Structure formats: structure tokens, C-alpha cells
Amino acid sequence: MSFLLEKDSLNGKAGKAFVTINGRNEEVFGLKKFQADAEFQVADFNVVGTNITQKKVKGVTMTGSATVYYGTPIFLEMLQEYLKTGSLPYFTFQITNEDKGTTVGKQVVALYNVKLDKVPIAMLDDSADYLTAEITFNYTGMEVLTPFNARPAQLGN
User: Fold this and answer.
1) What is the pTM of this model?
2) Residue 138 in 3-state DSSP?
3) 2 within 8 A of 155, measured Cβ to Cβ
4) Looking at the domain assignment, is residue 156 inside a domain?
């Protein structure tokens, strides 16, 4: 049986994130952690002749979160725009994983029609060496712009 060699495990710090909003492309310079998920929504499906309850997929919910070092202004600017205009801006996230020490290559994923769910406004913490803030969001589309290689250059045996 083949297995992944440790040299091809991805370093979680080897990557970057960009936000595209109102024609501007900005690197999220204070990013500490990022995760985007797709969760399938299912409904029970029962039929006469079996006691098995099947699950039918009826949709998908796409949500995510980002932990940033406090002082990353772009998300608070979106809140201010909403408060001034009544229109919350939608934007695109582009996430790149690229650990040049591996042979799996890089992956670039775009999340489209991203809308903020929660953004902290102000923070203080007497026990913190540095402040971090969690941003939550949802989105309506995604695309793998550049996929990882189909397999690493070498597998273990």
C-alpha cells in the first residue's frame, strides 16, 4: 500500500490570501488562519419496504472564517460602507497554498460573492500579547483555479 511521505505534507504557513473588492486586489497581510467549508444539506428519504432512512442532498451551505491580527482594516471598512450606504459589499477571496518544499504543487481557490457575517469593531485584552479577531462569512460560489498535482512525485511503500 502506498502512502504520502512527510516531505510532501503542506506547511500551513506557506500561502497567501487576497481580497478583491470594488476592483481592488488587496493581500490580507494580517492573516493567521483561514478555513472555508461546504456543508451538504440533507433531508430524510423513507420508502415502503425498508427500515433504512436514506439521506437525499437538497443543497449546500458555504461558510467560512478567518482569524486575523487585530489592525487588519479591510473588513471594518466594509462594515463602515454598509453603515453609510445601506449596501454591504460583496467580494472575492483568493487563497493560495504553495509549499515549495513539496512536490504536490500549488492550489489556488477562489470564493465568489463573499459576504461578511461577523466582524469585530473594537478590542482590548489585558492578558493578550497580541490581539486577534475572527471574521465569519458566507459565499455563493467557488472555483479551483489551479489544482494540486494529481499525486506527489514519490510515494512511500
Assistant:
1) 0.90
2) strand
3) yes
4) no
DSSP, res 156: B
The whole-angstrom separation of Cα 20 and Cα 82 is 17
For 62, the domain range is: 6-146
- Would you say residue 1 lies in a domain? no
Which CATH number characterizes residue 57's domain?
2.30.110
Q: What's at 40, amino acid-wise?
A: F
Residues 76-105: pLDDT tens digits? 999 999 999 999 999 999 999 998 988 888
C-alpha cell at 52: 433504512
* Model pLDDT for residues 1-45, shown as the tens digit of each residue: 888 888 888 888 899 999 999 899 999 988 999 999 999 999 999
CB 66 within 8 A of CB 108: no
DSSP string covering 29-56: TTEEEEEEEEEEEEEEE--TT--PPEEE
